[in-house]
Design a protein that fits this description.
By secondary structure, the protein is mainly α. The chain contains 13 helices and no strands.
Length: 294
């Protein structure tokens, strides 16, 4: 836990460029920084409210506070794993071993519903800005490379009997999930997507990015769908999203400084701060599973 917190602090301190840009805006336009902080706080609270409600509805028998604890601790433990894989194990810490397959299936449903929302909105975004590109050769190359690599990894994983047995167990649990829970997961995933997409857009406006509503959301959804296919640690999410956002949005005349600051703030408010609270909660109120090990 201390190592995790130390690594988070180091990651924040390494963002010297973004802090320099923020300081420059504070000197010239302090009001915009104040508005950005308020939007960041409000949007991040709404975003995580949606995530916690989704998990509470999926599990079905826990309070909002308990769902908050499990979500934040699961998030903090996923910070150093690709595509938040660590969250599966993190949430299993709160339940008996016999329930592991069910909890993993519910966590997977939560992630899958969020990914489908990203793909759905992102597809519309890419279609709306398609005319700005001569071809999608690079994107197609990336997709083909990822597809081949994915099949190789899946084949390698399935060669182990223990993995096949675990996946079958999870699939049996997944089939028992009621349609009501599936629809609820998609509802809250859609809510979260709308919240953080608009949070991203309003933050861009705070830093003088001259972009209209439709184009802005199209660019944002395109950035998220392009970065969703890259397996990356959550701690390094800002680097990947920042790179893609700068390349894509600069084609439409958005200032690089505004894009970098916005991506950094989104990462800080929606990824880093919740992880810090999760680590502190794990440190102070350890789950029963961890207490039994100490």
């Amino acid at each position: 836990m201390l190592i995790g917190l130390a690594f988070v602090v180091w990651s924040i301190q390494s963002s010297k460029t973004e802090f320099g840009l923020l300081y420059g805006h504070w000197e010239s336009q302090p009001q915009s920084i104040i508005w950005a902080i308020l939007i960041l706080i409000f949007g991040s609270i709404l975003n995580w409210f949606g995530e916690v409600k989704k998990w509470q509805k999926l599990v079905g028998h826990i309070s909002f506070v308990e769902a908050l604890k499990q979500s934040l601790i699961g998030h903090s433990l996923s910070l150093f794993t690709p595509n938040k894989w660590g969250e599966y194990g993190g949430k299993c810490l709160f339940y008996a071993k016999a329930q592991s397959s069910k909890i993993i299936a519910l966590t997977g449903l939560g992630h899958l519903s969020q990914l489908i929302m990203t793909l759905l909105f992102g597809s519309f975004g890419l279609l709306l800005i398609y005319s700005a590109f001569d071809s999608f050769e690079i994107l197609q190359l990336k997709w083909s490379w990822l597809i081949v690599l994915s099949f190789l990894l899946i084949g390698f994983a399935l060669s182990f009997k223990v993995i096949r047995h675990q996946l079958w167990s999870i699939w049996l649990q997944f089939k028992t999930i009621k349609l009501e829970k599936i629809s609820t997961a998609f509802l809250w995933s859609g809510f979260r997507y709308v919240v953080f997409a608009h949070q991203f857009l309003v933050l861009l406006w705070c830093f003088d990015a001259n972009v209209d509503y439709v184009l802005g959301l199209s660019l944002i959804s395109s950035v998220y769908i392009l970065t969703s296919i890259v397996p990356v640690l959550a701690i390094g999410d800002a680097v990947v999203k920042g790179s893609v956002a700068v390349v894509l949005m600069s084609l439409f005349g958005l200032p690089v400084s505004a894009v970098l600051i916005t991506v950094f703030l989104m990462w800080f408010g929606n990824v880093i701060l919740p992880a810090v609270f999760g680590f502190l909660w794990l440190w102070t109120w350890q789950p029963a599973y961890l207490k039994s090990k100490t």
